[in-house]
Amino acid sequence: MAAPENKLAFDDGWQYSPAPESTDHVKIDKRYELFIGGKFVAPEKGKYFDTINPATEERLSRVADASALDVDKAVKAARKAYGPWSRLKAAERGKYIYRIARIMQERSREFAVIESLDGGKPIRESRDVDIPLAAAHFFYYAGWADKLEYAFPGRKVKPLGVAGQVIPWNFPMLMASWKIAPALACGNTVVLKPAETTPLTAMKLAEVIADAGLPPGVVNIVTGAGDTGAAVVTHPDVDKVAFTGSTSVGRVIQKALAGTNKKYTLELGGKAANIVFADAAIDQAVEGIVTGIFFNQGHVCCAGSRLLVQESVADEVVQKLKDRMETLIVGDPLDKNTDIGAINSASQLKTIEAYLEIGQEEGGTMYQSSCAVPDKGYWCRPTIFTGVSQSNRVVQEEIFGPVLAIQTFRTFDEAVSKANNTPYGLSGGIWTDKGAKIFKMTQSVRAGVVWANTFNKFDPASPFGGYKESGVGREGGLHGLGAYLKLEA
Amino acid sequence: MATAAKRGKQRLAVAKTYKIYIDGKFPRTESGRYFPLEDRKGNVIANICRGSRKDFRNAVVAARKAQPGWAKASAYLRGQILYRIAEMLEGRRDQFIAELSLQGVARRTAEKEVDGSIDRLIYFAGWSDKYQQVFSSVNPVSSSHFNFSVLEPTGVVSILAPERSGLIGLISNIAPAIVGGNSCVVLASESLPLCAISFAEVLQVADVPAGVVNILTGHRSELTEHFASHMDVNAVIYCDGDKKVARVIQEAAADNIKHVVRRTKINWPDKTAQHPYLISDTQEIKTVWHPIGT
């Protein structure tokens, strides 16, 4: 089929004027301490690290680097708080959590700006997705606090104790809410470690928790890098570990917990296939592909990082995708026009760039949009690989960047076998106008979340989590409660 | 051997060779090894196959092959097949009581265990078309989407069956795994292995498709790590062992982020040991989204 002309050149003759979100209402301190026992305290060893704006490479603040000593203090504070918190009337516990949700809603714009400054994600996403969903998550789980006995028929439920939680940098505040909200609703106390490149909104969340009047020690937040996370996970007085991050770190954690009675949930990597059939609404599918891989710079564990497109429409889909990629604006995360923000860190950019090399060396054809990118900061143009095969590393491995690997298929069964042919099983996408085919495909894809004629949708009421090497357990919805409760006869 | 010898005075009884159960067939262990099972007086009851890692791997291949078809069978059919297992066990009640007695279980206890086992199969047969309704959900998301979560089998499950509960403990682990559409590879109790192999015979005549349940006998110390480490197994269930054993299992399981299910210190004949959470232990939650529009 002849490739159609690019009909999507919206800005021919017209340029988008910058539309920056204002930052004057946002207060970032020069330095952040640890949040332990309801107080902001300096780290025992007096060490701090920089957190930078990945769009400018400038320092935003200095943040405490928690050592094992600090983690121990935090766990002790959580342990002390656990008894009274778990015995508190469940309805009252719920009301505390509702308070957090409400304050987050009130301060949502401020948090959105900080999220974009610290993490590089476009303000449109932090404003419309991350922060509203984070607040909604607290609101959702708040209501569960006094209704837990209805969630598990025939069982009595009990909290687990102290939860040690380690979260990633791709959705900092949203992941904090996914972890903290259900833990508190079920009567546990928390030690949370945010990612080292995106600690600021977690410290803002600490302010919210303090303002909400939560009893000291119910939530403790310790900032730091891998060592701090390891101290949280392996602390002997932690009863439950919740981790979101890479499969390789998840494996290390599962091994580290071997022989202990700690409960754990792991939300790990993915390499989801977005499967487009010839009978799909092609323009909508193209939008879904774009959302699937370029949302949040592709820093999404459930990203649709593989495209499987039926051969008869492959040329059309790829051409339309290229046209659409040309319209994507890469740049200032605080600009409301921006589609793709900054890559989260220098090291992540290096990882992505290494995969761009690998993909080409393996024989794939790389295509990038021609957009300009700023001089300073970490950027990656939207990228697709065609002509790749199932065994290629860019098809098998999680890149965690705006890089899409495209393969074709002829039959339904071929699509299924290619889609399932990775160690992961977190998510999948299916595009077709045929209802029966949707149900057959959603049943055939071995993944925990399947989007049909849509992609990358999230909701507090909707369970999330993977099959196979994408993890253990679910977060969100009724099923997310199970991770924070003991069930007894 | 001993059983048969005791029975017939008129004629020489025919003793059963206890073999392992893989892919619907009863091969001997590929290793050619055995261990003698003795009664309390030290008489040899039977030579039991000392299954090997290779046997286990063959069983996993069979289980993987069988699993998708079994998962696709209707819940009604799976329920009927589990019911059929119970029927077949009922018909062989005396044989199982005799086997348990032979292995040192008191007669009354043995009778109770076999009856309890049959009833437990009926219990789980009944769950086949109900657990989904209890555990699934339609999720009220804020956007204009239809969103629901259903249970799907985890896949291939390896089971280190209870050491001290040779029949009802075995069945209480197999039944919930397979009623949920999983296939499994089971290591029978090392000290009470007879009923496990006879139960395999029951499975074979109950229309359980080949490969859905595979049962090995052998040394726990030799096979435990392999049951936990195999990269094509999705979940491992273990029913005995101290902290050290738990560590071995969990460390090995981490290689492919296997689900680890611990079922220690459970009184298997007791009613408290039957509940649908034994089914949901080896289920995944799948959530599906679709836009609502015109």
Describe the structure.
The complex is a heterodimer of chains A (489) and B (294). Chain A folds into two domains: 31-268 and 467-488, Aldehyde Dehydrogenase, Chain A, domain 1, CATH 3.40.605.10; 273-452, Aldehyde Dehydrogenase, Chain A, domain 2 (3-Layer(aba) Sandwich), CATH 3.40.309. Chain A contains 14 helices and 20 strands. Chain A has helices at residues 68-87, 90-106, 108-119, 123-142, 172-185, 200-211, 226-234, 247-256, 282-294, 311-326, 346-361, 393-396, 412-420, 435-444, and strands at residues 31-32, 34-36, 39-41, 48-53, 58-64, 156-159, 162-166, 189-193, 219-221, 240-244, 263-267, 273-276, 306-310, 365-368, 383-386, 403-409, 427-431, 449-452, 471-472, 485-488. In chain A, helix 1 (68-87) packs across helix 7 (226-234), helix 2 packs antiparallel against helix 4 (123-142) and helix 3 (108-119) packs across helix 4. By secondary structure, chain B is an alpha/beta fold. Chain B has a single domain (17-291), classed as Aldehyde Dehydrogenase, Chain A, domain 1 (3-Layer(aba) Sandwich), CATH 3.40.605.10. Chain B has helices at 2-7, 53-72, 75-91, 93-102, 107-127, 131-135, 168-179, 194-205, 220-229, 243-253, 277-280, and strands spanning 34-38, 44-49, 137-138, 145-153, 156-160, 183-187, 213-216, 235-238, 259-262, 283-291. Chain B has a five-stranded parallel beta sheet, sandwiched between helices. Chain B has a three-stranded antiparallel beta sheet with strand order 3-4-10. A two-stranded antiparallel ribbon of chain B has the order 1-2. In chain B, helix 10 (243-253) links the parallel strand 8 and strand 9. In chain B, helix 3 runs antiparallel to helix 5 (107-127), helix 5 runs parallel beside helix 7 and helix 9 (220-229) runs parallel beside helix 10 (243-253). Chain B is globular, with a radius of gyration of 20 Å. The chains are: A alpha/beta (489), B alpha/beta (294). The interface between A and B is large, with 47 and 40 residues.
